[in-house]
Amino acid sequence: MADHYEVLGVSRDASEEEIKKAYRRLARQLHPDVNPSEEAAERFKLVTHAYDVLSDADARRRYDMGGDENGGGFGGFGDIFETFFGAAGGGRSARPRSRRERGQDALVRITLDLGDVVFGVHRDIEVDTAVLCETCQGSCCQEGTSPVTCDICRGTGHVQQQVRGLLGTVLTTAPCGSCEGYGTTIPYPCATCNGQGRVRSRRTVGLDIPAGVETGLRLQLPGSGEVGRAGGPNGDLYIEVTVTPHPTFSREGDDLLATLEVAMTDAILGTTTTIDGLDGPVDLEIRPGVQSGDVLTIKGRGITPLRGSQRGDLRVGVQVLTPTKLDGKQRALIEDFAKRAKAPSPRLSEFHQGLFSKLRDRFRNG
What we know:
alpha+beta, four-stranded mixed β-sheet, 9 helices
């Protein structure tokens, strides 16, 4: 485990003020709001933990004597007595609360177009959140001042009370009401953050949204949420995605689905056409004799999956349009064609719930 003095870059006989200055200097360099790298985040955790120990007189004493900084080990006869018999016979005294707390997680909802889902997209998101106070750098105090030991609980963060019950008088321990359990008070709080070590602000977060996301998916950005009280570590930021419906295309897994209306003459003779895909024009060949409900598949023009690299397909269902108004010459041509083609008489066949049901079944069956 890293030596706390080496982490802060101070000597073992450093004063409280020297330790505080070293922490502020490192916090300005390593805090996630300033340096978002993973390496800086890990160092910031070590620096914060080292300062938590060395800024607490009792924890520092135990650490210097080789004991457990959290209260374990034996640092003297008083520690041994408290370990076995408890403080004042009422159980072992609890440590004061740390002012540094982890920040809350934040949730932001964003709306994407289906086209954004094909390859992914970059978005800059405005977030209203808590950020580190630049005036006090999370110390909560005015410059040149520091927290002082609470004169009510004498730095323990707790007070003992006598409660009378059926079994007699019981000694209980409760958080100190004067310092709220911190063991220290701040006589001169920072005027900018009112002694919180953080302020509300709007900041921009860059987000690379991967391809293949869908409505309801949440993306997590560790350490991009609110900064904690007194410069504590940031919470996480969650991005919830909603994909708006597209007027032409729908989605099934990683495939895109669409319907193409084809004139009767093109369906009979065949043709080549160009359709507008979500990522540009696509040439589509319609073979002669295509039927309503046939599905034409264009490989690799669907959505890039969230996990993987092979894109889905674009599947186009055909709907043949029958003309409803014919002039005399057109009607004569169709009648002549019908005689020559010797088309079969109308007959009953398998029942279908309309064209779109037929298309849906063929889409699902590939």
